[in-house]
Amino acid sequence: MENDTATELTAGEMEGWLSYKIRLVQILAYRAFEERMAAYGRTPRYLGLLSIIEAHPGQPQSRLAEAVALRRSSLVTILDQLHAEGMVERRPSENDRRTNGVWLTRAGLLAVQRLREEASKHEKQLTKGLSGEELQIVSNALDRLVENLSRDE
Amino acid sequence: MENDTATELTAGEMEGWLSYKIRLVQILAYRAFEERMAAYGRTPRYLGLLSIIEAHPGQPQSRLAEAVALRRSSLVTILDQLHAEGMVERRPSENDRRTNGVWLTRAGLLAVQRLREEASKHEKQLTKGLSGEELQIVSNALDRLVENLSRDE
DNA sequence: CTTATTTCAGGGCCACTGATATTA
DNA sequence: CTAATATCAGTGGCCCTGAAATAA
How far apart are CA A18 and CA A124, in angstroms? Predict the structure, then answer.
């Protein structure tokens, strides 16, 4: 407490927690990423989704929704946007006429490659100054955290 | 690609990136936290803010907004909510009649302590299985990431 | 007069729920 | 008839911008 004038306001013991730091990094990283991507419109937000479509073309919307942990209904709007920007195509499936397969257009493919390139620079900037060994430990630890969060309900 | 039936849909090389993993952990951790906190209403979201107020009572809204990286105008609504829930008080400052000092009520103090207790369990579950040494390395690395994100514009 | 603090009105984005049409 | 897929209308949360009122 003391005299807080011109002091940074801190949150006490919590600041040492991993959950706190991870959230902080995520917020800062997201902002830096958005800034770097400002020229690319609203697409960068969906780099993850676009990469999934690139790696698994023709999947139905329901599976894509599952892959990005969104409701099917939420994905509709997103795909509408990506379609309006010419990134993505829906083609009705032949075997099951309820479903649309989703594909990247040529423009979508180029976009996702360019985005990933830029994101890779972001990644390099982010991890600057960490040794390969440190990176490995952090990476494994993060995997462990994901496990901890997934397994016990 | 191959036959994707019953396969998990993945995002390719990006999945090895720290930026990707951190985002994933953050999303999962936030959900787990929300679930754990379901009984506590909408307050847990503001545990960080409440902790800051606890550690630095009587600060004006503008400094609190800065501390949580929000616009002053955004903090108004949040404090309105916290006030409606009886967690927080605004008292006009004596030296500067434009500003409100913000303080925890007795209920707010109890709430933030209870919340932090619960969040601490969340932290323990999250970091389960990591050695003290690993924790230290990860913690330092995350600090480094924050630096990398803050320093170069 | 200029600057700082808070408040308020309005808007945008995002994902949700729940209902509907279509097809399996 | 029941279940699954995609869509649509409506809602709520969250934060923003820009303007107003008050005070330094």
Answer: 22
**Hey, is A103 helix, strand or coil?**
strand
Q: How many CA atoms lie within 13 A of B9 on its CB side?
A: 23
Query: Which residues are within 8 A (CB) of B33 and not within 5 positions of it... i.e. 6 or more apart?
Result: A19, B44, B119, B122
- Which nucleotide lies closest to A99 by the C1' atom and the CA atom? D5
Helix axes A18-36, B132-151, angle to 10 degrees: 30
At B21, the amino acid letter reads K
pLDDT at A104: 98
pLDDT score of A35: 86
Beta carbons of A52 and B11 less than 8 Å apart: yes
pLDDT band at B122 (very low <50, low <70, confident <90, very high): very high
The pTM assigned to this predicted structure is 0.91
B84 CA to chain A: closest CA distance, Å? Answer: 23
Distance A60 CA to D4 C1' (A): 12
